[in-house]
Write a structure and sequence with these properties.
Structural class: mainly beta
Number of helices: 2
Strand content: 35-45%
Helix content: 10-25%
Largest sheet: 4 strands, mixed
Oligomer: single chain
CATH architecture: Roll
Strand order of the largest sheet: 4-7-6-5
CATH topology: 2,3-Dihydroxybiphenyl 1,2-Dioxygenase, domain 1
Length: about 100
């Protein structure tokens, strides 16, 4: 997930401080985009996947272009609300850019 987030423009700092990983489960990373920040941690348990879903509505045209050029599979739809790009990261989940 960290590689995907980095490819679409988030700043990902793995093992960035003494609090990560928070639950002593595996590698931890601090993820940031502007003022939005969260911690991401992987599990040590085998075959355990957790869907990570996110919708962002304030991306610039440049950020959308970078995400589209990242090489990850996406679909594009249009509606009366505008354009919508749905990305499927390799670690499960869905990212929607609108």
């Amino acid at each position: 997930m960290a590689k995907f987030l980095s490819a679409i423009g988030f700043v990902v700092t793995e093992g960035s401080d003494q609090l990560l990983p928070l639950f002593s489960e595996g590698r931890g990373a601090r993820v940031k985009r502007g003022n939005f920040e969260f911690n991401l941690e992987e599990s040590k348990k085998r075959n355990q996947l957790a869907n990570f879903n996110m919708m962002l509505t304030d991306l610039s045209d440049e950020e959308v272009a970078r995400a589209k050029a990242s090489g990850y599979k996406f679909t594009h739809t249009e509606s009366i609300l505008g354009e919508c790009y749905t990305f499927e990261p390799p670690d499960c989940g869905t990212f929607v850019f609108s």
